[in-house]
Structure formats: C-alpha cells, structure tokens
C-alpha cells in the first residue's frame, strides 16, 4: 500500500515538474503584463497583438518560417526515410544491414553543435550561400535518421509474404508498394513525420550555424536574440500556448485513431 502511494506520488511529482512551466505560460498568456509573473487582470490583448499586422511583424515572420521549414523538412524526411528504411530492410547481407543501421544512428548520437558545425563547414567549402535552403537541408539531415528508426520496426512486423503474394497475383512492384507496404508502415511514417516536425521546430544549435546573415529568423533564433536584449516579447506567451494546444490536439487525435484501429482488428 505504502509502496503504491510512493510510486503514484513520484509519478505525479514528475508530471508536475514537466507541465508546471507550460501551465504558467498558458495562464500568463491571458494578461497584458510585460513581465511574466505580474498578473494585471484577465485579457486577450496579447492574442490580438499576435494576429495584428502592425504588431511584432518579425515574430510573425519567424513563426511562418519555422512552420514552413518544419513541414518541408518533415515531408522530405518522411518520403526519403521510408524509402531508405525499405531498402535497409530488404538487404540480404546482415553485416551490411547492421553497418548501415549503425551509420544511421551516428547523427542521433552526435551533439547538435557538432552537426551544426559540420554542416556549416560543408556549405562554406561548397560555396553554398546560407539561408532558407541551407536550414531546410540541415534539418532534413538530422531528422532523416529518426524517420528511418520509426519506419523500420513496422517493416519488421510486416508479413514478408504479402509483398511476394501481390507480385504473384499480377501487381507491379509500384502497385505492391502503394497498396501493401505503405499501408503497413503508415503508422511509422506518421510517427516519423510528427517527430520530424517537432524536432525541426525545436532546433536551435543546427539552425544558428546554417541560417546565414540574410536576416532569416526562426522562432528559436528569435527567442535567443530577444533574450539577449534583456527580456522576452510578451506575445511569445500566447504563441507558445497555441503551439502547445495544437500539438496536444494532434497527439490526442492520433492516439484515438490508433485505439480505434486496434479495436477494429
């Protein structure tokens, strides 16, 4: 009895430590106070400022850049990550398959600073001007291994005879891929896509090395520059709240879909 109470108390303490900062941001997004912690009454003015054309145009631009980079990164990483995972899974030689899988984990184990410096030196060596394109390429580089790791387990769980049976019944390799393999690995693709979006939005170290000096900003670089000025823009609180709510709703929808599909099977 005591052991169960202690375990539950420890779990609730961890949840409190994880979500207390988010709850504080959500609460203080509904007040006009410029300094967090100073409640001046309930107000939605910060939300109105966030969607106003005349207020914090740079923050809106940084948010649009962040979302567009994340969506492009996640889409490209999911497509190429799925193709790569299928290729790794179908390798006959176990040593080569293990070697490629090991190489795939190196970017995951490496620190973001090392990846950022390496890509920075690569772009400088190749003479590629830094900006939007280099940020997208950099994000694809470190998101791709995670997508591969999300898709590979689904391929291992799939019945290998389904693809061969489809070919024997007259389907072309592309038709078998589209109608047999893709539906089987779709949950892994969705998980990889969501993970790539989250990692791209969250990244700072790689972005700061590859963003260049053209004035391009993402949310992470905007917050960093804002913090160096001695404070954070109050409109960051409602923006963080909106991002948190959207991600939460997406996770709830995905979990409900997963539970429904498992109950149907």
UniProtKB/TrEMBL annotation:
<dbReference type="Pfam" id="PF00528">
    <property type="entry name" value="BPD_transp_1"/>
</dbReference>
<dbReference type="InterPro" id="IPR035906">
    <property type="entry name" value="MetI-like_sf"/>
</dbReference>
<dbReference type="InterPro" id="IPR000515">
    <property type="entry name" value="MetI-like"/>
</dbReference>
<feature type="transmembrane region" description="Helical">
    <location>
        <begin position="132"/>
        <end position="152"/>
    </location>
</feature>
<feature type="transmembrane region" description="Helical">
    <location>
        <begin position="12"/>
        <end position="31"/>
    </location>
</feature>
<keyword id="KW-0813">Transport</keyword>
<feature type="transmembrane region" description="Helical">
    <location>
        <begin position="180"/>
        <end position="201"/>
    </location>
</feature>
<feature type="transmembrane region" description="Helical">
    <location>
        <begin position="236"/>
        <end position="254"/>
    </location>
</feature>
<feature type="transmembrane region" description="Helical">
    <location>
        <begin position="62"/>
        <end position="88"/>
    </location>
</feature>
<keyword id="KW-1133">Transmembrane helix</keyword>
<protein>
    <submittedName>
        <fullName>ABC transporter permease</fullName>
    </submittedName>
</protein>
<keyword id="KW-0812">Transmembrane</keyword>
<feature type="domain" description="ABC transmembrane type-1">
    <location>
        <begin position="63"/>
        <end position="255"/>
    </location>
</feature>
<comment type="similarity">
    <text>Belongs to the binding-protein-dependent transport system permease family. CysTW subfamily.</text>
</comment>
<keyword id="KW-1003">Cell membrane</keyword>
<keyword id="KW-0472">Membrane</keyword>
<dbReference type="InterPro" id="IPR051789">
    <property type="entry name" value="Bact_Polyamine_Transport"/>
</dbReference>
<feature type="transmembrane region" description="Helical">
    <location>
        <begin position="100"/>
        <end position="126"/>
    </location>
</feature>
């Amino acid at each position: 009895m005591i052991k169960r109470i202690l375990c539950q108390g420890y779990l609730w303490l961890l949840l409190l430590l994880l979500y207390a900062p988010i709850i504080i941001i959500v609460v203080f997004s509904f007040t006009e106070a410029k300094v967090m912690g100073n409640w001046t009454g309930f107000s939605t003015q910060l939300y109105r400022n966030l969607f106003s054309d005349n207020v914090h145009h740079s923050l809106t631009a940084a948010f649009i850049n962040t979302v567009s980079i994340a969506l492009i990164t996640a889409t490209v990483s999911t497509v190429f990550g799925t193709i790569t995972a299928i290729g790794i899974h179908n390798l006959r030689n176990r040593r080569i398959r293990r070697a490629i899988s090991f190489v795939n984990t190196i970017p995951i184990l490496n620190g973001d600073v090392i990846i950022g410096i390496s890509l920075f030196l690569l772009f400088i060596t190749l003479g590629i001007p830094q900006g939007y394109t280099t940020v997208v390429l950099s994000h694809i580089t470190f998101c791709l291994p995670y997508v591969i790791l999300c898709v590979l387990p689904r391929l291992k769980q799939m019945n290998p005879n389904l693809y061969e049976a489809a070919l024997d019944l007259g389907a072309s390799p592309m038709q078998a891929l589209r109608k047999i393999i893709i539906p089987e690995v779709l949950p892994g693709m969705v998980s990889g896509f969501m993970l790539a979006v989250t990692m791209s939005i969250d990244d700072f170290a790689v972005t700061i090395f590859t963003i260049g000096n053209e004035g391009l900003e993402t949310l992470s670089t905007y917050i960093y520059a804002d913090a160096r000025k001695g404070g954070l823009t109050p409109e960051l609180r409602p923006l963080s709240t909106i991002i948190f709510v959207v991600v939460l709703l997406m996770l709830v929808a995905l979990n409900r879909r997963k539970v429904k599909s498992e109950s149907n099977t």
